[in-house]
Amino acid sequence: MTYITKNERETESIGENFAKSLKPGCIVALRGEMGAGKTVFVRGVARGLGISGRVTSPTYTVVNEYNGEMPLFHFDLYRLGSADELFEIGFDDYLSRGGVCLIEWFEKAEDEYAPDIVVDIVYGEEEDTRSINIREI
Ligand SMILES: Nc1ncnc2c1ncn2[C@@H]1O[C@H](COP(=O)(O)OP(=O)(O)OP(=O)(O)O)[C@@H](O)[C@H]1O
Ligand SMILES: [Mg+2]
Predict the structure, then answer these.
(1) Are 28 and 95 spatial neighbours (Cβ–Cβ below 8 Å)?
(2) For residues 11 and 28, what is the distance between their CA atoms, to the nearest angstrom?
(3) Which residues of 73-96 are buried (b: 16+ CB within 10 A; e: fewer)?
(4) Is the CB of 56 under 6 A from ligand 1?
(5) Could you tell me the distance, in angstroms and rounded to a whole number, from the CA of residue 32 to the centre of ligand 1?
(6) Is there an atom of ligand 1 within 6 Å of 34 CB?
(7) Which residues have CB under 8 Å from 106's CB, separation 6+?
(8) What is the pTM of this model?
(9) What is the pLDDT of residue 116?
(10) Hey, what CATH class is 2-136 in?
């Protein structure tokens, strides 16, 4: 499925609707350049899961945890050296806790882990437009 959004709010609502299809233990890889809108999309997913707290980028913390209808684990692997480090922070434990894992910069871990769903966010030609492709693997 591919969606075109014209602003941040529209990307959030795509994320919000997408949240309805998520099942416990699901791994979602978020792809896209810096500033594409991965974190914005996660904000929408959080809203869809009934999470009221503010969603901020976990760049320095690697993972932020939110409690909604099911737990949401928001990873940003940008600063991660390798998949080994992901193992060290206990990624497997997160997986077994019945939450959904939304992971920015999953490329760093793809040799070791496989996503269930890939979300690709690409800049459109006009300012503030984005193309969002969601596919199950
Ligand atoms: N259609 C759109 N969808 C999403 N964000 C948009 C859109 N148009 C403009 N923006 C802006 O683009 C930026 C997206 O930032 P965001 O932090 O979500 O990017 P990111 O992909 O998570 O980047 P990073 O890899 O640095 O974490 C925000 O400033 C947002 O306001
Ligand atoms: Mg981000």
Answers:
(1) no
(2) 16
(3) bbbbbeebeebeebeeeebeebbe
(4) no
(5) 10
(6) yes
(7) 29, 30, 31, 75, 77, 113, 115
(8) 0.96
(9) 97
(10) alpha beta
Q: What is the pLDDT along the chain (137 residues), one digit of tens a residue?
A: 999 999 999 999 999 999 999 999 999 999 999 999 999 999 999 999 999 889 999 988 899 999 988 999 999 999 998 888 888 889 989 989 999 999 999 998 988 899 999 999 999 999 999 999 999 99
- Report the alpha-carbon distance of residue 128 to residue 112 in Å, rounded: 34
Rounded distance, CA 3 to CA 109, Å?
26
Instruction: Annotate 11-38 with b (16+ C-beta within 10 A) or e (fewer).
Output: bbebbbebbeebeeebbbbbbbeeebbb
Query: What are 56's two structure tokens?
Result: 């901020």
The encoded tokens of residue 34 equal 């810096």
Q: What order of strands is seen across the sheet that includes strand 100-104?
A: 2-5, 130-136, 117-123, 27-31, 100-104, 71-76, 63-67
**What atom in ligand 1 is closest to the CA of residue 36?**
21
